[in-house]
Amino acid sequence: MPYLHFDKMQMTNLQDSLFKELLITNRQGAYCSTTLVGCNIRKYHGLLVVPAPEIDDERHVLLSSLDETVIQHGAEFNLGLHRYQGGHYSPKGHKYITAFTWDKVPTWTYRIGGVTLQKEIVFRRKGGFQLLVRYTVIDAHSLTTLRLRPMLSFRSVRHWTHQNNVANTGYESVDQGIRMKMYAGYPNLYMQTNQPARFVYEGDWYRGLEYPKEAERGYFDVEDAFVPGYFEVELKKGESIVFSAGTQEAKAAKLEMSMEAEKVGRDSRDSFFHCLVNAAHQFRVEKDNDLYMLAGFHWFKARARDTFAALPGLTLAIGEKERFEQYMATAEKALRDYIVGRPISVDIAEMEQPDVLLWAVWCLQQYGKYISRKECYERYGKLLTAMVDYIWEGRHESLFVHDNGLLYASGGREKPITWMNSTAGGRPIVPRSGYIVEFNALWYNALKFYEQILTEFGTEDEKIKARQAGKDAEKVGQSFRETFLNEHGYLFDYVDGQLADWSVRPNQLLGIALDFCPLDLRQRKSVLDICTKELVTPKGIRSLSPKSGGYNPLYTGSQPQRDQAYHQGTAWPWLTGFYLEAYLRVYKMSGVNYIERQLIGFEEELFYHSLGTIPELFDGNPPFHGRGAVSLAMNVSGILRAIRMLEKYQREE
Fold it and tell me: How many CB atoms lie within 10 A of CB 488?
């Protein structure tokens, strides 16, 4: 039985199956996403969701869904499912699903009387934006008629479609299909089949479609969809038809061949690890000969901090050295542009955040660990020097090296400058300024790594810089202990003048998890034990201890309500990677069994929310519901790094 498998009982239980989502990306910025039962529950859902650069920098839903109807002996059986205003479901086709599996491609099996129908979906990864859906009659006692009824939106993922007189609802015939463009500026949508099918034009608006996930998030949740008509074909037992939806006209006769070629190139989702490897590949976007890493789905773009924090786990931890180098080639353009003050020439946002260069140094350090420090020096040594010098010389507008060696970050009360970036009224909900604990943990680690790599491979002049970095690191280490280590045995979250934040937060984990740590073993154990008691959950590390003021663990309600909870108690899986790294550093081999138990909690999540991946965050209290975006790059990266660390220790044992 395939690893990702759901039977009829699970599929027909809407309370469960309706909120299981699937995501397929084409690595060119487009995606296909819906629920296992084909009922869209988000405005971000759609079978063909593509960038439309002529309009804006958002993705746009062209083909919202595709309803199937099986006709036998004059009786119609509708396989689609939609939720309409008032919570009414129609036509309730989920009751015909007998199984769903996802190994190489998502596959549904329907049973309608004497007919067994199989549906498979693939998204082409090259040659434009094209979705392929194949229907195969596995069993039937007589000729079967299949109708395919497309529902169109032609809208941004952030907006809604409603019936109107502006839309161009006409169509033009193309090779075994039609093409439509409902609004100016959009690409054409080509809908074709690999064998002749009769198209019947109806031109109807389906009104009052309801999206419960949007209502749950406090947004408007109703829209209309345009249905131009339906395609109809007769099939015998063993016959198939391939439906194509794309922004370029396809060669209809070759659709079956394209479908098979795409299936061959897919990796299996046959284990926890391989599901996460596939999830890692979904964040990849190739654009203008550059390779980007999206921060998550459905609404995130490429962001600098997320890129450097997630890159090692999504590439090096799964043996993809060349992929790391391709990502870094794009990111290096952004880094060098920023360092010399040029406009950023690639589409990576938030380069100005003060900790970005620190994360970039950590990222290169992981390359040195996984590949070799010598190769890291040869490939990235000059970039490493440019980044360290930029920080050393105080060239960042809000990041300064003080006489005690620590980094002081200013402006954190007026705007977010760390990963805890939720706001209310334009101001940070978690204002963090001054000596920020993870900034200085990363800074100490950066100086020590810089000293190490220049000492080993640098020129004589670089060895002089290495000795200076070592001296500065000693100063930073002493100041770090004096500034952050408090009388209760954990680390302040930040210190600004006489103000010290006593909140127990997970940022202190970086102070004990990185390769170079300014604390001794006893101090690290004390910090780790407090984090274990107050922050660890089965689904990640809490952003705030329940014992700290302002604890708000439930990420629910309207946008303002969710913003208040975002970093005030919710659990974040990406931090688990650093927590487990710290745990192994303190407890060595005795921590292996504990880490295995921690990872089990994430494996079950692959069968909830978005299949085969890890959602953005979880509630901080039981039952730890998954919330936010359906897939986050940093989370997948953190778990993959943890798996690799566990394997390393098990091999040593």
Answer: 10
